[in-house]
Design a protein that fits this description.
Two copies of one chain form a homodimer. Chain A is α/β, with parallel strands linked by helices and 452 residues long. The first copy, chain A, contains twelve helices and 25 strands. In chain A, the strands form eight sheets. The first copy, chain A, has a six-stranded mixed sheet, with helices on one face. A four-stranded parallel sheet of chain A has the order 13-12-11-17. In chain A, helix 1 runs parallel beside helix 9 and helix 4 packs antiparallel against helix 5. The first copy, chain A, is globular and about 70 Å long. The relative contact order of chain A is 0.17. Chains A and B meet through strand 4, strand 5, helix 4 and helix 11 of A and strand 4, strand 5, helix 4 and helix 11 of B.
Amino acid sequence: MVDLHDNNPPHQVVIVGGGFGGLYAAKALAKANVNVTLIDKRNFHLFQPLLYQVATGALSPADISSPLRSVLSKSKNTKVLLGEVNDIDPTTQKVMVGNQSVPYDTLIVATGAKHSYFGKDSWETFAPGLKTVEDAIEMRRRIFMAFEAAEKETDAAKRRALLTFVIVGGGPTGVELAGAIAELATKTLKEDFRNIDTSEARVLLLEGLDRILPPFAPELSQEAQASLESLGVDVQTKTLVTNIENDIVTIKQGEEVKTIASKTVLWAAGVKASAMGKVLIERTGVESDRAGRVIVEPDLSIKGHPNIFVVGDLANFAHQNGKPLPGVAPVAMQEGEYVAKLVQKRLKGETLPQFNYVDRGSLAMVGQHSAVVDLGFIKLKGFFAWFFWLFVHIYFLIEFDNKLVVMIQWLWSYFTRNRGARLITGKETIAPVPIESNGHYPTVKTRQPLNV
Amino acid sequence: MVDLHDNNPPHQVVIVGGGFGGLYAAKALAKANVNVTLIDKRNFHLFQPLLYQVATGALSPADISSPLRSVLSKSKNTKVLLGEVNDIDPTTQKVMVGNQSVPYDTLIVATGAKHSYFGKDSWETFAPGLKTVEDAIEMRRRIFMAFEAAEKETDAAKRRALLTFVIVGGGPTGVELAGAIAELATKTLKEDFRNIDTSEARVLLLEGLDRILPPFAPELSQEAQASLESLGVDVQTKTLVTNIENDIVTIKQGEEVKTIASKTVLWAAGVKASAMGKVLIERTGVESDRAGRVIVEPDLSIKGHPNIFVVGDLANFAHQNGKPLPGVAPVAMQEGEYVAKLVQKRLKGETLPQFNYVDRGSLAMVGQHSAVVDLGFIKLKGFFAWFFWLFVHIYFLIEFDNKLVVMIQWLWSYFTRNRGARLITGKETIAPVPIESNGHYPTVKTRQPLNV
């Protein structure tokens, strides 16, 4: 039998998106008396918090990806469907996957977010973001290509632009990218080139607010900035990016306008709702915020549709302290688990109090041997924070897949400072041609929105 | 200084290609009083014997790749140049890299081979070969996409074609691919699907000669065939492929002509010389064989050009027992090291006896716990051969890069039967669309010849 749901099904739960929100909902329903269909565009769950490690050549994509089918192979009530949901019909209770319709009793939408250029979509060509494996491979290609091209460049100004790395956005991803690139330049690649001194590379981290890592306590923001600066990162706060074009970044600091010539600009700033957001809004009339995120009810359902839930980065949940919960993995996990629990309660005719996010704290890596950890009741920094960061990430990483190897690989690369995964692959494998011919790198065509 | 050779250079050796031949030549020249420039199109050395492990989701590309710069970072007389050589001028003794010329006193060409469809280049669309990282990623995509598409396919005949894997060529690569795919279907993926039984997948290995693994002793060929058959592989010898088109493979067995419907045909048959072969022939008038390989002199130089050498798969060396040496890694390594030694001798006004290949034996993996090893004086099979195979490969793999992690990862996946690296990435990430719309998968545009 090949139809996508049983012929006399129990309650049919359809989950769209295999990120943290969707996967944790599916796992929490594994033992429930429901049929679950998890639909994702990709065949793997991506552990996004470590994507910057792929972008900087420390880990391989597979190290931070788990095949959805093997994660859920023990959940006999769960089917994985590889495909893209292009429409939803709340009236007949179906989602469309290509030309095939999948019926649901309860729908959980967890398609996440993609990066946003605040309407300046042309910037993406020059400043790719980091959401998918393809994004990471492309970033890795640009970073290592820049050093290769600099090695061959005879013009001093061009060489300087090739050795200037600009990261836009001082959140965790920006901080982690900046730290990793600085270490690449000053340590990993130091002995590898003959014509350039890689440690002369400039790494700039640009943040619009008055400090990096705004979600953290101010002293940790200062600590993180100090660690980055000790690695040679030039941290610029209160700095607005007003244009990115032809390898020139234009910034505004107060009244002052400056330009930075850089061949490698990386985007770690804004995000917006994934495409499913629009579909939901059109089909259900639900309201959304400026970023296109869906406004959800206290139980994470959407107004007027108690059997449609939105969890994770696509959801705007503002019933806890007035402001929306941040788009981080722990929020998505807890939301997914809450909805799974609520669905089971409802089937028993019971209910649940509203969703309540338990913030267990924030972590950010700052270079290979330093991190900041803010658990509220305690704040860690430096090596111990780094070790804690490592432990927490590996813990979640190996939870549904045997990624012990990742920890070993990582400790290895930590102690040897070696980054073995610095392959330049994909469309453009030879630097000088694209750079010298049209002045910048081609865009990747393979970029995908997060999950579905 | 950014020019590619010193201004008062000692003897300038230019090596084109960072495969086994080129890299071993470069390493053997590390301490010599010469300047070395290694030119490669890619920034990494690829450990090709394990490429099939990437194609079948057991290893990541980075696990079997070593950045050329880090491999050679300690060789202070050696520069790595990332670029493609498009011409050679033996008169002025220069190679052209793009629009930039690199002078040489001694030139070592080691650009290897690419796969050959015996003039039937249209077959490549349906039956990709396995030479580059991109090839492996594309094969991996096709293999895992076939299972995904079968899971959704309602037509029994189409589903059977999706679950039929045809490997053309019974050499080591074909044998290793067939064994790995059979194990994927019967073990790794067994629990992951709900609509199909992956163990019903058909894996066919087609070989033109009367036995697989012709380089091995006949009893080992039989042993390998028996192991493959115990894994469920259908081994067909004395079988000629006469056509591959629209997912139909036409074969000829004696007078009998048959067709096989398969969505996944993998090419492990012929190879031909890489593009540099033609350039050499045009510029030096050297002779080549039917596969386009360059006929070399007893010292691996080419006739009339004692300072131009060809090593590895691009060379046809027939001065040992009349027939050309096989295109395997050990031959390339020994040839590279011989030329490095000869260059140093010549600088001292000395010479060397002709090149003499020392055959230390052949190895082939047959499934995850069985292999065949032919050392001439001893023949191994089964688990012990498998372990020997693993040891030898890891030994060479970690020789110039710390790939201990690979061994761990591997033993791990051997004991858990898990293959974590089965991401479907790249251009087509959703199976049903390309398959159902035009009946076959699109070709990859990213295929690259081996090395330069």
